[in-house]
Target: Cytochrome P450
Amino acid sequence: MYFSFETIPAVVCVFIATYIIYWIKKPRISKNEPPMVPYKFPIIGHTLDYLFNAENFLAECRQKYGDPFNIYVFGQVITLAGSEAAHEVYKHIDTFNLLSATRDTFPLHRVLKSFGDPETMEQVVKTIREGITAKLPLYTGRIQKKLMFSINKEIGDCSNPKLIRTANGDFSSLIARPVADVLVGQEISNNEDVIKAFANFIRDFTSILAIPPILSFIHPKVHTQVITLPLRFGWNPIGKHVITLKKYLKPVLEKRLRDKEIFGDKYEPPLDIIEYLLNKPEYETKVITDDYLNNICEFLFIFIVTSIHTTSRHLTSALYDFAGRPELWDDIYEEQVRIDKECNGELSPQHIDKMVKLDSFVRESFRNFGTVVAVPHRCLDESYTFKNGKTIPKGRIVQTYLMDIHYNTTAYGPEPKSFLPYHGLKNNFSASKTDKNYFTFGSGKRACPGRFFAVHEIKMGMHKIILNYHIKTPSGKIEKKIRYGTIGMPPVAGLIFENRKK
Model:
């Protein structure tokens, strides 16, 4: 191969640039930190294994280096906290912060300005607890009606077996309807434009996250700046959804204000979150201005981010888990038939509580969802020392090693990756109950406040679907879940529905 004198400076420059980047990005680990897993490739570190072989790679690291341990991914050191260390992260809520850790990789605050604001997020949690969880029995009948409407619309008549593709989030609308009923009331929860806005909101936002974080090798904030450039130049993939909600919500709010003024003490407040907000001092108003609408819609979309997308994915995954296991069909179906006869088709919270086999099945589906690592937290203190004596510095991202928690042999036996449909039933663990071996909804004070509503909704949906349809996979076998990097997703093969004979 011939090299001219002109090429020598270029080669030297590339070499120098590579060395400088390597020197700048070389991880600097103090002596007392968790062990750093060795890697072969400078700059790249463990990134390829993390993206394409996370389950096996991290299991080997855990076995060899204990808990917690450090790896080098996308230009930064992250700490993996598994079944022993993760509990410390969730316990020390002032030291470890979730929102601070996700701002670079999930910059939703660029379009929902109050997303991540501590005061707003605290208000969201309070609203869920007071406005939804505490009143869940009052919502049950309405949720059931919305679910049945959605099932008839999204699945419909299956006199002949019907294959329904799930890759495009068909069940997002199924979940969006009851959520819309609870959030914005019965006046507009039947509006298909509103349902589409709710169902597609988070999917459209994640379109800006399609660019792999290659620039994070330089610095995570460089990647964030690049992927959010379109937003700063006016492109807003979710702006249309906010406009839709504002359009239909404004007349509802204006009518309620008029009715309050006309009827006074005789005003009968509707049961929904917008009414709950109208009665709070921070949202009290006499005129529905555009700014007021923006604030209340932004608040509502924060709910949507944390509810519809996640709930619909878990419902879809649970349907696949059921469809691929014919040995469970009769047992779980018989429970639903018995409960349906008891309630004469009108479920109450007490009847939902009696779905103990279905609840246990749903819990196991959650545990086997397939996500390897998730829920990052940033260390905000100058340093933090784990109980095993290992210390991490301020700013370190600590990832929750979910598979180490959900597949530990102490809790789930010698074959923890097997599907144990009645493990929760035998051990008196409900699907919404968090414990040290089940982090689907987080842990401790950080546990998801909407988990009761989500499980309530999924169980009701599963109950109605199982009662009305035989469900199979196209292959007749258990379909393999999809994984994007470390994040699990439901299979995409589709589900076959066929009417049950009444």
In short: The domain at 109-499 is CATH 1.10.630.10 (Cytochrome p450). The CA atoms of residues 104 and 224 lie 5 Å apart. Residues 1-5, 14-25 have pLDDT under 50 and may be disordered. The two ends are 78 Å apart (CA to CA).
